[in-house]
Write a structure and sequence with these properties.
Blueprint (H helix, E strand, L loop, with lengths): L1 H24 L6 E9 L3 H14 L1 E9 L1 H9 L5 E4 L5 H9 L5 E15 L6 E3 H8 L9 E4 L5 H10 L9 E3 L3 H10 L3 E6 L1 H4 L6 H5 L1 E3 L1 E3 L6 E2 L3 H5 L6 E8 L6 H10 L1 H10 L2 E2 L12
Parallel strand pairs: 1-2, 1-3, 5-10, 6-7, 6-8
Antiparallel strand pairs: 3-12, 4-8, 4-9, 4-12, 4-13, 10-11
Amino acid sequence: MTKFLKTLSGLLLVLVLFVFACQDKNKETIIKGKASLFVDESIFPIVEDQQAVFETEYDAKLKLITKSENEIINSLMNDTVKIAVLPRKLSNDELKAFVAKKINPKMTHFATDAVVFIRNKKSNDTLIALDDVINFMKGNSVNGIKGLVFDNPNSSSVRLISELSGIKVTPQKNIYSFNTNSEVIKYVAENDGMIGVVGVNWLTQPPLDMQNNVDAVTVLSVKDKNKQDYIYPSQDNLAQGKYPLARDLYIINCQGYSGLGMGFASFLGGERGQRIVLKSGLLPVRMPSRKIVIRK
């Protein structure tokens, strides 16, 4: 009986050690494991590019889930998501709510992009004034604008235009709302006179199945309120702070431990991640280094 108990105890010990070994093997670290990441739909292409390279370099798997800005913020506040990429910081009130729950979100700025206006290429007009957009939203007739098309009532693009105009964007006569940026681009590509409002990243890095639609639209130069010049959303103009609809991109990590949220944030802000941002047409936070080889 004693021998049996010793054997049983030995087997239990081996089983416990095996369980702990498996747990340690599957434990998430900054460069290993699995995690879900909520991404603002208007900036999905740049995050997808970063994910692809990150996963090839490390034993990590990031599941990207696209949502509108409001949906992501609500999920963060409800603790249903721990890592998110958004085109803005958390507000002071949002930060206070996290502090009250003894959570200290880490926010890493890794790029600057832009909300842009697009028009069907059948029109030769490549300019648009923000005042004209605001007047149209007030219900006034504006030459060259048959309608405004937004991606989602809860999107970051809608929030930005609402803040700049002082008018809450809601679907009404001649103001339309879809669900995604790709739907907006397709609609504008097929309908002359419509002005679409999208994230520029969908135009600089379109999926292959969207290329024909992207080729059929024009990105417009924008004149800010009380300004004279029309500014195109180029990297140079974003860097100089000239483009009026620029916005900073952040990865927000609420994991509270050294997990993939920390690792991916470091990657985005590092040399490799910043180089990916630069090639995407967006503005990196810091310019990647360049090696100059002098040959005789």
